[in-house]
Amino acid sequence: MTRIMNIKIHPRDPCHPWLNKMTDPPATLRSGRTGAVMALLVGATVSIASAEAPDAAPAERTAAVGNQLGSPDPVRRADSEAESSLPIPARDSVALTGQRPASVTRLDDGAVLVDFGRVAFGNLVLTPPEGAAPQLTVRFGEASRDGRVDRHPPGSVRYSEVSVPVTPGSRLVVQPPRDKRNTRQDSANTPPAVRTPSEWGVVAPFRWIEVVGVPAEAPDGWVLRQAAFAKRWDDNAADFKCSDPLLTRLWELCRYSIKATTFAGVYVDGDRERIPYEADAYLNQLSHYYAEGDVLMARCTFDWLMEHPTWPTEWAPHMVFIAHADWMQTGDAAWLAPRYGALRGKLLSDRVGEDGLVHSDKQHIAHDDIVDWPPPERDGFVFSEVNAVVNAFHLAAVERMGELASAVGRHDDAADADRQAARGREAYLRAFFDPAVGRFRDGIGVDHHSAHANFFPLALGLAPPDKAPAITEWLVERGVQCSVYGAQYFFEALFENGASEAALRLMVAPDARSWRRMLDADATMTWEAWDARYKPNLDWNHAWGAAPANLLPRYVLGAQPLTPGWSRALIRPNPGDLKSAAGKVPTPHGPIRIHWQSGGAFELSLTVPQGMTAKVELPATAQTRGVFIGEKPVRAQRQGSRWILGEDVSGTV
Fold this sequence. Notes:
single chain, alpha+beta, five-stranded mixed beta sheet, 17 helices, 19% strand, globular
């Protein structure tokens, strides 16, 4: 039985400084972790050992995590926290975990190549053995080439080298050099970077190190990685496997990417900047829910972004998406209520004209309206004063804001949002749908129909049901014409509109825009872009590229919340051409377990936790004539390509 634990936000919580100005009572958070020791970034003492690589022995791990190693200059030196008064979210929510190497190889030139198996944000603990040179050279690498650390990696992929004076038998932390950009606090052009605790030393993403100066017979345990992961992370909370090995590998790549990018205590955009962005945070939030289930980091990120917003037009409505996703995941109106007023300011209402549509001025058109990122991934989108993508996000945010208004008892606001949404939908179709071609145009007065002008409204539920099939077919024919960010919405559009087979094929197709490139490159974290050809300065540690972490369990397993807090779930598998799939989806009530097989008949095994019922919609194959639980027929109605069970299920079926 899963116990829901209640934790209160302290009114002076340093992770939520903007709330300190408010007089509302502390909110209540809920987590579905059974038996976990929980805290909200204040006073947390739990350390969870990583399961991604062999752990250090207990005594060594304690030393590594606790940094009880002294501070020998210049090896361990961190930037002064006096530079900024901003909170450091990771201090109490993230732990350094000692990890042994996956392999150690002696190279021809005498250097030692150490592989930790996966990239992680961290640094090293070295115990130089007898016979070590008085000064070691340590090279940190996020990439390898020809059996060595790649010293000239592409884009923002990390490489660094340090020289370390040592005394044999001593233990010391060896850290990469401090990066000026991703620790910047006073930029006039960007929000402040999120800092990590100074007591850690500098952490950076790396998988491999080369060490020059270590004797051939170095004893076991002379080198450990201190890897930074969220303390609350539970590696056993979620699972996904299917009959396609590539898709199984893809989910694990994305799951681990979400875990590894918890290093900062809030969702950041990768190592190059270490800045939270609203759209990145929403994608990260969705995947975190399906990869592990915890809600607290998304909430901390939301509050950080309320203090430090970023510039793109469409990113502001994503704050409404984040709050709405939290509401659906938790059903917790107490968290939402003190944030509701400020959240309304994230709508684009001040830019809505008399026609009910959002208008853009020259600054918006030239800079703020983003559509997709990087710019080459916009499929030739033509910007204009009134464009389809900006309006799609505003309209979807208005609809979600209406639901949130009802949740906090603001019924007049909810009714007003419903009226705005109804008017906006009519205006949207008049302005952007081109009946001559059956697709949405980029903007008013624009004779161009980009993929983005179509998959965004399709994913956001704005396309008329009778027009959606033709738009979906056109998108499938064109393939992926967007970035890894846009892919979240592109694949949602396909799954939601009956194109699951195409969606699964395109995810791992041997094309330029698919996750196949990352899998073939043996990536252990997802990239900022499909390839350097689309973004030359890409980094290799970007969680907004990890959308399959949520897409595969949401659509292939088919588990989504139907009511806030998962009191009622939807189980609607989309098998495509897969033969089977199985997995575990974390919820506040405990895990949903799903296993299905697709052949002549579709067979589903389902367990839902106590406190939850599930509406079940099954694929209706040509051979099926009804639905059975065991040998007993149950009431079900066939609607198109689905069998809809007449009653919700609970327990195990």
